Amino acid sequence: MDETRKILAQSRFGPSNPTRVGFDAALKALKEGAKLALAQTKVKPESIAGICAGLAGTGRLEAGVQIRAALAVVFPRTVIKICTDLELALAAMPDGPAIVLVAGTGSAAIGRSADRNILRAGGFGPLLGDEGGAYDIGRRAIISCLRDHERGGGDSPLGKQILRQLGVGGWVGVQERARTNADDLFPRVFPVVATAADADDETARAILRDAVEELAGLVKDLAGRLSLQDARFHLAETGGMIGRSIFFDAQLDDSLRAAFPRAKIGLLPISPVEMAGRLALQLLSATGAAGN
Question: What is the DSSP string of 137-174?
């Protein structure tokens, strides 16, 4: 992004949550993503004046410090801002009271009250939370299909689709991958569940209904703590699960509208990555720096 907010290039790489994939993998993703964007513009790293990195897992001070130090090596003359992906999403919301629900690999919500108090709910990772996220949905779907297999000696339609998606011949292989690489396994099942739900598979729909209840619960908890239950506020949905299933999106919208009839519900008005660019520009303005 240049000084006029014109987007010069975009790229995609990942994942980059250091608490899930480790610092080496997260830093590699950041560097490769930046390299791809720079290659499109022929801009050199030393020409970049400001960076905002909004990353899951950087809420811990030591994680943010480590990411900042690593980026400073690649971009030596750059002003750098580190924030969480949740903070980035909230910054993209209009002024005033607002809540953002993030439904991706994990689940979380962040909100701002009328007096600008900022609180969050969820986002504790797969061992302590993330109910309703893609990881949780994939885990529940595999458990359900495993039980169907044990009871009937065969696989349900959803079970067969999951095995095809994962590229394994049976549930023993799935169990082994769950023990060795659950972070990769479970989220990959979500697209199968989403597609099956849109094709009227009742097992998939039941799993997604449970996920909607969990996700809406995060928003209800946060709205209560921010005193927004009966207020007018902006409520946005974002994350990799949104827009993947007509059934899921409709269920989530209906649940949130029933709980918050006065809220303005929709998607983020600005994408998180564009908001990161704008925050980098704000950082430059505050420090008097200039550049791309």
Answer: HHHHHHHHHHHHHHHHSS--HHHHHHHHHHT-SSHHHH
User: Residue 94, preceding bond cis, omega within 30 degrees?
Assistant: no
What homologous superfamily is domain 93-269 in, according to CATH? Answer: ATPase, nucleotide binding domain (3.30.420.40)
Q: Are the C-beta atoms of 162 and 141 separated by less than 8 Å? A: yes
What is each CA distance from 261 to 121, 235, 240, 257, in whole angstroms? Answer: 21, 11, 25, 5
| Spans of all domains in the chain | 18-88+272-287, 93-269
Its pTM stands at: 0.85
Phi first, then psi, for residue 108 (nearest 5°) are -170, 165
C-beta of residue 87 within 8 angstroms of C-beta of residue 70:
no
- Helix 190-198 vs helix 202-225: crossing angle, to nearest 10: 110
Residues near 212 by beta carbon (within 8 Å), at least 6 away in sequence: 132, 248, 251, 252, 255
Chain segment 129-164, per-residue pLDDT in tens: 689 999 999 999 999 998 988 887 788 899 999 998
Distance CA 245, CA 190 (A): 10
Q: Hey, what are 281's tokens?
A: 């520009």
